[in-house]
């Protein structure tokens, strides 16, 4: 069905025309996304987790607002039980308060809220680097393969096949076993080196179909250089796919990193991550379950909200279910 | 026009009419030139007097709405028509005018979210209130449909023979072999050579024209009373279009069916149909005999469509006279006549009140225009759409 | 077609070579197997270092070492050629022997997880696609998102701690309380109400029926002490057979023409009779006997379908065969549960196992051992398949919705086909083609998941072997893991391609 304010062809010069279309498209996408209730709730929760984890324990030299440090050993109070209470007094609870150690303490008396926040921070940081760098590599390789075809494509796609047949977790574990010692940043880079394959295939597919489209042929016929065709004509049209895929890869990265750290091949002490916390305290499960529950809850919360955001983006970019035939 | 072989059991010779006078030859009014150039004047069946037979299909005040995220889409708003045995009715309109949706409503093929009101009756029986099983038994057996794009309308993973046989088997239990024999017969009827081997082919092994022939074969295989053809030639090469239309008329006459031909191509309408219903923004805006629609146009939109047909051999002005603007949003319809924003004749009256279908000076010809008289007075109604440069 | 397969095989070989090479280099660089020995200053350490260097061939440069390793590994892949040689572990064990055991264990885990996930996932996907935008659809969608977001390792530990312990505690005194039965009944009612769909009355009716049936069954089973000593018995086997016959007929052929139903019911009857007639044979059979019996059942089913099918012979045969297979599995389950009491005694009531693949020193015959395997497989499989389950159901749903919007489905409906035919013959057939590819892809991911699951549940499979190898800086077992996973990935991708070409005639020519 056509919208009444359709752009007349041939109005303005080429760049302007595309800019106008892109904006209206962008507005549509934004509107659909903001209407996706679950995605919006997820976005709020995700941002809250992000802000909470980074502000509470601080970033680098900047101190956080939380009174405890994630390395300071203290005395264990009340068996390290969490002091967080969310049941209001009039319902027979202890009233809503945080207390001294809302998430409890571990066996050395370290405040578990601080530890969990630090773990969240590291896990999130790794996830962002993996999502960003992995997607960048994926787009680069997929775009090159899809646009230049020929030998470039054969080599790149065969290379992708080679990477894909190795189980992601296992091959990353092999390298991360060493890279983990170099700190979370290098661990993230190593993971990213193996997570780009899916997006590369998708982007290549998109490029293959887009390069046959009339507007690309027109640009090529007009002598537009390759990089400009890619940047101006093809990439904007694959933006949705890339954005959705990058978002979802963020969730995958959180799961992957925590799994690695759980097996002992990821983040190494003295630093910590959510996966390492689960790994370290799974033995304490029976006596002090909160040490095991909290980091897990944060992993699920991050992965779940990011997946919902990705789903919302997908719906926004590809609202197939709203189509009506006429 | 080739006659079907007489040993063909499907051929019903009662409906084979003699070729009559070509309606396009009468009346030398200006639009003729334009219409003629876009039409293959190949049709003999129009001369027959079969029209006026038993009423098969009746649609009364049919409305269809779709609730969507952006609001309710009023796809069809109160459309009525009747189809008689042997008749070809053309439904013409732009995409989004509701012509396909109305016929899908007749077939019961709309998605569950669609809100349908009004009456559809087949041979006097109310189709919409039928139990689903009964409605299903009408589909494909009494009312068959041919779709626009033969490339996607057939299932790629089943053979053509299976898909044809399935249409038979869903209404009648018989050995598969017998159903396949019927399929072979039907393929032969629509002019597919070596139908027996073709049965085992998959749709992708057919060309576009062949597939559309196979679709026609699928539609006629159960000897239906009504065939709804939804833009049957739009997706085909021009050279193939004429063949397909010719074949459609041929098989219709052979099995004695009536056709609802949905199209946006006035050339197709002129060559094939007895009567025409023009749709705009979900409503019928002009209904009448085909000749009257072309030569005694009483609705500016129809005139605009006529003016949009390119002509090769007109003498004084070969200029196209397009309708400017785009069809209105079916969610937020403008007040008054929905065509008024694009209409050169529009007055304040048009912008305030939506016209109903008025009787015009021609009998049996109705038009939804407050100003149909002005069109009746004009020599060539398409000139209302003259471009500014032309006017100066 | 043949050229297509040959091309794919050659490409697969190249990819496998490159993949193993990269893995070999990375594994070789990932750590020094001698590091621990070097720090030691025990007497005779020099000898041990030299010994290990020779055993692991550490003096040879990595690329050359790869070629040597490849030469040995090639003998494993090519049948009937010499002995398989995958090198030795740091402790001097023969890796190919280690791998053989580990592979069987992992294969068991992955096969069960995949089959279960595919069956449940595809069914859920189809139902939610057909009931789009219902509460059931939303719940399933939400659940699948949660499953995808669950870290396996965390969930596995939770399963171990909560489900296993609580379930075992409950099995010590298995009674279902009235509120518990009511709650399960309500859940069952909600699910069935949404699946059946239709107008309010139909939904309420199906809710009520499911509620009463489920809750009542639970209370009845509890009262009769079934949970203490579960079993099916010939009556339940018969009921399942008849239900399968009716249900499958409804899906495959409908009831308009009765011959298919008669054939299916006849097969179910034959199954009931066979269950009783073969009783002595089924008391403690070998697996070979069971397999032969399954073949016999299928053959009988084909015969019945052929004889009674009439005009719908094809449908009758396939329906009968499926009924026979379902009955065979029901009878197996029935017999397996006969070993319950014995097993329960042996493990002291802790029926749901949380560690390893079998109970040490337990031998309960074919059925007892089967039960033992099932109780050990239950939790690892559950942990392993959740992600796949979610993926399959989401993918099937999307694929089905896409297909249901295709023009050819509209054409099929316009021909007057029943909804059943449209869905089964047109939508399902087309919608499930891409799912085959997904299964192949997902298998590689499943092996990654197995690494974690096996570690948590102490399942001595390839994943367990791999993690141990990596922790001990033991290159050869780690490489054996990559070799097997590489072959599996390449093989299944190839199978998926071929299956795709077979299922979609458009690809056959290209």
Automatic annotation (TrEMBL), chain A:
Database matches in InterPro entries: BP-dependent_transpt_permease, MetI-like, MetI-like_sf, OppC_N
Topology class, membrane: Multi-pass membrane protein
UniProt keyword list: Cell membrane, Membrane, Transmembrane, Transmembrane helix, Transport
Family matches, as SUPFAM superfamilies: MetI-like (SSF161098)
Major localisation: membrane
Gene3D superfamilies to which the protein is assigned, alphabetical: MetI-like
Pfam families, alphabetized: BPD_transp_1, OppC_N
GO-annotated biological processes: transmembrane transport
Coiled coil: none
Cellular component, GO annotation: plasma membrane
Transmembrane regions listed in the UniProt entry: 38-59, 122-147, 159-179, 185-203, 238-265, 291-310
Locations listed in the record: Cell membrane
Domain ABC transmembrane type-1: 120-310
Family: Belongs to the binding-protein-dependent transport system permease family.
PANTHER family associated with the record: D,D-DIPEPTIDE TRANSPORT SYSTEM PERMEASE PROTEIN DDPC-RELATED, OLIGOPEPTIDE TRANSPORT SYSTEM PERMEASE PROTEIN APPC
Protein name (record): Peptide/nickel transport system permease protein
Provenance organism: Haloactinopolyspora alba
Automatic annotation (TrEMBL), chain B:
Location in the cell: Cell membrane
Membrane topology recorded in Swiss-Prot or TrEMBL: Peripheral membrane protein
Membrane recorded as keyword: yes
Region spans: Disordered: 1-34
One GO cellular component term: plasma membrane
Transmembrane segments: none
Keyword Lipoprotein on entry: no
GO biological process entries: peptide transport
PROSITE patterns: ABC_TRANSPORTER_1, ABC_TRANSPORTER_2
CDD domains: ABC_NikE_OppD_transporters
Record key words, sorted: ATP-binding, Cell membrane, Membrane, Nucleotide-binding, Transport
NCBIfam families per record: oligo_HPY (TIGR01727)
Protein name: Peptide/nickel transport system ATP-binding protein
Organism: Haloactinopolyspora alba
Automatic annotation (TrEMBL), chain C:
Subcellular location: Cell membrane
Gene Ontology terms: biological process: transmembrane transport
Domain ABC transmembrane type-1: 103-496
One GO cellular component term noted in the UniProt record for this chain: plasma membrane
Membrane topology per record: Multi-pass membrane protein
InterPro entries: BPD_transp_1_N, MetI-like, MetI-like_sf
One Pfam family cited in the UniProt record for this chain: BPD_transp_1
Keyword Lyase in annotation: no
Main location: membrane
Keywords from the UniProt entry: Cell membrane, Membrane, Transmembrane, Transmembrane helix, Transport
Transmembrane portions of the chain: 9-29, 107-130, 142-164, 176-196, 203-226, 232-253, 260-278, 290-309, 321-340, 377-395, 435-459, 479-503
PANTHER family xrefs: ABC TRANSPORTER PERMEASE PROTEIN, DIPEPTIDE TRANSPORT SYSTEM PERMEASE PROTEIN DPPB-RELATED
Similarity section: Belongs to the binding-protein-dependent transport system permease family.
Name of this protein: Peptide/nickel transport system permease protein
Protein species of origin: Haloactinopolyspora alba
Upper taxonomic lineage: Bacteria, Bacillati, Actinomycetota, Actinomycetes, Jiangellales
